[in-house]
Each structure stands twice: as structure tokens, then as C-alpha cells.
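Customer escalation, tier 2.

The customer says the design service returned an amino acid string that "doesn't look like it belongs to this structure." They asked us to rerun it and document both sides in this ticket. The original C-alpha cells are below, unchanged.
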């Protein structure tokens, strides 16, 4: 299979370049059925890409093709202080000026609107450290609620402008995803899975991931960025076919 089939709008260490209802993912088995997404909770293209993937998976489900989806951690700002930073000041520094940061926000907001997402960058006052958001998403994955938790965290940040570095905000996201709020608050107060999240981030970088979202099918790099749903569906269809052919020939 091609090591890297395609690329589109992604978030990377230097920022975001411009260029998906949760989909019902079956407990599919066999080659070409596991999708791993490397993402960060503050990457706008990851949320836009989620919407596009949901549309792609709906199309593929109509063809009788089911997939399992796993979200994996990546920190765009791994050196961000635990308490985060003032977003306006941080982005003006990161992108060179407040005007450039505002222009990027406008382009991202327009791209989000095209997939039905009403981003409210005007409400976003903090750029958070996302390690605890990744821990929550991991915990939700252990309990079968990962997609709902990912959606809740994305929505809290991009739609509501909330600080997803705050434990109380994350506990509220967990409750919205169907998890027990107090149990999650207790979990976040400890250090369970923090080491694993940092190790997974390092592993992604060592595997060549430099921007998110990055999509893998059974461990093979498939594409990066918030591709149109049709393009995603074709890449998944093609990748699955190649993997199944390889298994049959092996």
C-alpha cells in the first residue's frame, strides 16, 4: 500500500494550514477495518476532519463496509504550561501578529461552517495544555465512549470557547459523553495514563507524524488533513481493498 496516499489541511507545530452526528462504527473485523486518527483536541482541522470522516463512513456503511475508529494523542504545543496561556497573546506571538492570527481564525471558521460547525473563536480566551484532554479521551476509549468524548471536547473548545485544560470543564465533557462526572474528576486529579499519553505522542512523532489529523488504516499511513468526505471514502475503500488482497495472497 502507498506509504502516504494524500495530504490536505493539517495542524502542525507551526500552526494550521487551510484546505464530520457521530458515525455508527461497527465492530468490524479483518484487514482494513481499523482507523487510527492521530489528533490534538485544539486542532480545528481535527474537528473538521471528524465531520468529513463521519460522512465518509456513512457512505461506506451504505456499501456494507464497517470500520472501527481509535483516537490517538498528539500535542501541538507539548511545552505549553499546565495552566495554558492567554490565547490572543500566544497566537500573536506564534503567528507573528494579531492580524495574521485573526485571518487564520477567519479562514478556519469559514471551513468549519462548510461542514456544519459554528466555530466561535471570539469566545476562546485560553490556549490550553491538552494532556488531560487526551487522558479523558483515552479513559472514554476504555469504556466504549471515545467518539462521544472526542465530540464533547471539540465542541467545548471550538463551539463554546471553554478552557479544556480545566478539570471541571473536562469532567462536564465526560458527563455529556455519558461518563460519570465525579469518577472522571477523580481520575483527572491523579496521574493515571499521563505517561502513556506522552509516550504515544512521542511514538507518533517517531513514526513521522508532524501534523494532525493523520489517518492510519491497520497501521499504514493513509492520509493527513481534513480531506473532503468523498476523498476519504475513496482512500479507505482503496486501502481496505489492498490490505485484503495482501492477506489473501499471503
Amino acid at each position: 500500500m502507498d506509504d502516504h496516499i494524500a495530504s490536505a489541511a493539517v495542524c502542525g507545530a507551526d500552526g494550521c494550514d487551510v484546505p464530520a452526528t457521530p458515525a455508527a462504527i461497527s465492530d468490524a473485523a479483518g484487514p482494513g477495518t481499523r482507523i487510527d486518527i492521530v489528533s490534538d483536541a485544539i486542532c480545528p482541522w481535527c474537528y473538521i476532519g471528524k465531520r468529513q470522516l463521519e460522512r465518509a463512513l456513512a457512505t461506506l456503511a451504505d456499501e456494507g463496509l464497517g470500520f472501527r475508529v481509535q483516537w490517538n494523542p498528539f500535542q501541538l504545543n507539548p511545552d505549553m504550561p499546565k495552566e495554558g496561556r492567554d490565547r490572543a497573546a500566544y497566537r500573536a506571538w506564534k503567528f507573528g501578529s494579531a492580524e495574521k492570527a485573526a485571518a487564520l481564525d477567519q479562514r478556519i471558521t469559514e471551513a468549519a461552517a462548510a461542514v456544519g460547525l459554528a466555530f466561535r473563536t471570539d469566545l476562546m480566551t485560553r490556549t490550553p495544555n491538552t494532556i488531560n484532554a487526551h487522558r479523558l479521551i483515552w479513559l472514554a476509549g476504555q469504556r466504549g465512549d471515545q467518539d462521544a468524548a472526542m465530540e464533547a471536547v471539540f465542541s467545548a473548545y471550538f463551539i463554546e470557547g471553554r478552557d479544556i485544560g480545566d478539570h471541571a470543564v473536562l469532567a462536564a465533557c465526560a458527563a455529556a459523553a455519558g461518563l460519570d462526572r465525579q469518577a472522571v474528576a477523580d481520575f483527572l486529579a491523579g496521574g493515571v495514563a499521563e505517561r502513556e499519553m506522552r509516550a504515544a505522542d512521542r511514538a507518533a512523532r517517531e513514526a513521522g507524524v508532524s501534523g494532525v489529523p493523520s489517518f492510519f488504516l491497520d497501521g499504514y499511513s493513509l492520509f493527513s488533513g481534513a480531506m473532503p468526505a468523498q476523498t476519504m471514502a475513496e482512500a479507505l475503500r482503496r486501502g481496505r481493498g489492498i490490505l485484503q488482497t495482501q492477506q489473501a495472497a499471503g
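Tier 2 assessment: The sequence is consistent with the input. The chain has a mean pLDDT of 91. The chain has one domain: 6-249. Sent an explanation to the customer and offered a walkthrough call.
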